[in-house]
């Protein structure tokens, strides 16, 4: 069954049947760029969600999390998203505004307020202007269409340089099932925008019918193996949100324990992983996409610690920017990662070329090593030779542009 | 008794009686800058040490740690230090070279090889040239003097822009006790030098007589409250070493539980903290010295997590470089720190000016906030209002120069 799905050209959140989307300009961004999106299912959809674990979770995160918990049937109609203002650290007022936003959107959509989510990304500590939200809702509701996915993906951008959408399809008993998704985050800032934080937002739609528990069980490992594997700057946002909506409009119902459920999970993982890849590729100021594989660790947690330590090492990140094969920095990061392994058995490869052998210089000429880190994509394989667990992460480098993006504007 | 000590003008490791030092050029650095130091006590000295917890501890670290453990009487004569080559990730050969270096130095000094330490800083993965070590030992032994502290401090530099020495003195029963120290690390790299890692080395001398256990008991908390509080890039080296030597030449013996022991500890902490301050001030590419205080945390560990998360946040570090009062990034870092506290009670102050009140905007005008982060020194006070524990750290910003230093040269 593996990989019996295909990517859809120009696929988006509105590719799955029964989903409408729109992206409009409500006025949150001073640039006049689109900054408000609406995503709506024509029929009630089951929803699974994943949210930031940041203690300062933004008002829309708190509200959406609560709505998911409170829902008896787990059915929802849609979500509104604004970019430019995060509605984080805004206290009771912020929570009230988030609730009022959902209420207004629900009224316009003609559904129960409990069945509409909201999400925000942008500047922290500033109250949302409810009038702008209302304007956004009115404009977006009028613009909703089955071709609106691309507009929606553009409207949720903040620091991104390109919108990020994807869709896949697969066949089930003669019927076509689609999964569509859009994401934002980790991209380059517009200097006038004054966004404080490159929040990660992701909205996934599918026209498969999937009951809530199964949907949640699919989303968790897929998020773990995609978004939770990437790191641009190691900073976790107050607003990170992933929502997965399944409306059943394809006429296909996915049931637990079937080959279809496995295929659905595989396709969902491919969608999220592709978006994660696009986010790292569009990382703030990034000139490199760095793939870090750790294998033969005593445990998965040890492998994860090693991979994360290397990915988040400022010295490694700046070396990559400088096309520097500097394996000493990789070794140092592994050594302080807190992972268990035998340092004297550690091997490292860059793009398949031996760099470190048994914890020391593998003897490959510098010129050959330099060639392995010169390109846009750098592959680092760390073989601990100390067990059978593995882990991988994707990250980017730290460039002058990264510093410029994050230093050269003021709140 | 508190603070009854004074800083000595141009103080160094050779300020305490009975300590000789030298710094010479052995040839490890291609620039021809001094790269070999010797520190020697004229009589046997008790020694306490602290070493990197990096799993890839360098050969000299492994050897020195073992010598300290193996010593029956805890008495040593001195240490040799080379800069330019770290002798890390060099396997059995590296260990043998380190041992041979100590042996040669001991022979020249006329003491037992077990009583001499070695330390290295510089490029990882390259073998030390024993001939250069021998040349260094010969030159340094001939140059040893009671005025050699400044030369020694210069010879151990790698990425530092200035040498770092300090000494304090205090009176004990009519006699003067001195504590001297030198350190290196966290400084700007010389582009030709190709140092991989800004290792932290620190050598402390005192002419007080202190038995080994008391010396160790003094060193641990003083290291914790100085070097363990600072962070430039969050990367821990393979070679970090602190050695504290007490030779008793002042005629004063410090005994446990006495006011003198308390004064000694206070003075030692002042010495290490001053060196830590100098290291952060000389941090690679640093334009800011950032003092982060966390107070009223539920536990010291919670306070520590908060302080470290803010200090190591790449988004905070680049904001500081940009003179950006961006408190949203501080909040986000606190929120993902893993610390326990009530986000809605969090207050933040910059240089005493309220920035965040109860987890939200304190309402201070932007212009006033900007003034609080414009200077060379930035003071951030985070009041969690959730307990009575506190913690502080010192860190620096991340500038274009930081990226340049760490990207613009190749191994």
Could you give a quick summary of the protein structure above?
Chain A has 11 helices and 18 strands. With 411 residues, chain A is an alpha/beta fold.
| CATH homologous superfamily annotation of the largest domain in chain A | L-amino peptidase D-ALA esterase/amidase
Beta content of chain A: 25-35%
Quaternary form: homodimer
Biggest sheet statistics of chain A: 9 strands, mixed
* Helical content band of chain A: 25-40%
Low-confidence stretches of chain A: 187-197
At the first level of CATH, the class of the largest domain in chain A is: Alpha Beta
- The helix tally of chain A amounts to 11
Distance between the termini of chain A: 51 Å
CATH architecture descriptor of the largest domain in chain A? 4-Layer Sandwich
CATH-assigned fold name of the largest domain in chain A: L-amino peptidase D-ALA esterase/amidase
How many strands appear in the DSSP assignment of chain A?
18
Please provide a written account of the structure:
The structure is a homodimer of 411-residue chains. The first copy, chain A, is an alpha/beta fold. Chain A has 2 domains: 6-281, L-amino peptidase D-ALA esterase/amidase; 289-407, ArgJ beta chain, C-terminal domain (Ubiquitin-like (UB roll)), CATH 3.10.20. In chain A, 33% of the residues lie in helices and 28% in strands. Chain A is built from 11 helices and 18 strands. In chain A, strands 1, 2, 3, 4, 5, 6, 7, 8 and 11 form a 9-stranded mixed sheet that branches. In chain A, strand 4 (75-85), helix 2 (91-109) and strand 5 form a beta-alpha-beta unit. In chain A, helix 5 crosses helix 6. The longest helix of chain A has 23 residues, at 259-281. Mean pLDDT of chain A is 91; it is low at 187-197. The interface between A and B is large, with 68 and 68 residues.
């Amino acid at each position: 069954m593996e990989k019996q799905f295909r990517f859809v050209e120009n696929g988006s959140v509105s590719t799955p049947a029964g989903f409408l989307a729109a992206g409009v300009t409500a006025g949150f961004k001073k640039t006049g760029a689109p900054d408000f999106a609406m995503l709506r299912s024509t029929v009630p959809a089951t929803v699974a969600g994943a949210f930031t674990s940041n203690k300062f979770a933004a008002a829309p995160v708190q509200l959406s999390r609560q709505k998911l918990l409170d829902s008896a049937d787990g059915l929802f109609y849609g979500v509104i998203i604004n970019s430019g203002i995060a509605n984080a650290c805004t206290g009771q007022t912020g929570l009230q505004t988030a609730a009022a936003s959902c209420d207004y959107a629900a009224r316009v959509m003609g559904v129960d307020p409990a069945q509409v989510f909201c999400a925000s990304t942008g500047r922290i500590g500033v109250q949302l202007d409810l009038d702008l939200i209302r304007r956004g809702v009115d404009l977006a509701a009028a613009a909703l269409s089955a071709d609106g996915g691309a507009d929606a993906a553009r409207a949720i951008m903040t620091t991104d340089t390109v919108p990020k959408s994807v869709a896949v399809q697969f066949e089930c008993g003669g019927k076509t099932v689609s999964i569509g998704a859009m994401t934002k985050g980790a991209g380059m800032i517009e200097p006038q925008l004054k966004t404080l934080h490159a929040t990660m937002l992701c909205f996934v739609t599918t026209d498969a019918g999937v009951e809530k528990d199964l949907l949640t069980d699919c989303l968790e490992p897929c998020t773990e193996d995609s978004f939770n594997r990437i790191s641009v700057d190691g900073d976790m946002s107050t607003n990170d949100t992933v929502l997965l909506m399944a409306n059943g409009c394809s006429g296909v119902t996915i049931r637990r324990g079937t080959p279809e459920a496995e295929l659905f999970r595989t396709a969902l993982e491919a969608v999220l992983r592709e978006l994660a890849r696009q986010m790292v590729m569009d990382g703030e100021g990034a000139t490199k996409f760095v793939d870090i594989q750790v294998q033969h660790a005593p445990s998965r947690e040890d492998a994860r610690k090693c991979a994360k330590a290397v990915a988040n090492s400022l010295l490694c990140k700046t070396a990559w920017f400088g096309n520097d094969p500097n394996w000493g920095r990789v070794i140092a990061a592994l050594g302080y990662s807190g992972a268990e392994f035998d340092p004297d058995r550690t091997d490292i490869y860059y793009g398949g070329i031996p760099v470190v052998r048994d914890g020391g210089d593998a003897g490959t000429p510098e010129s050959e090593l330099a060639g392995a880190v010169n390109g846009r994509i750098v592959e680092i394989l760390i073989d601990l030779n100390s067990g059978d667990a593995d882990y991988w992460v994707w990250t980017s480098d730290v460039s002058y542009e990264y510093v410029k993006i994050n230093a050269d504007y003021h709140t």
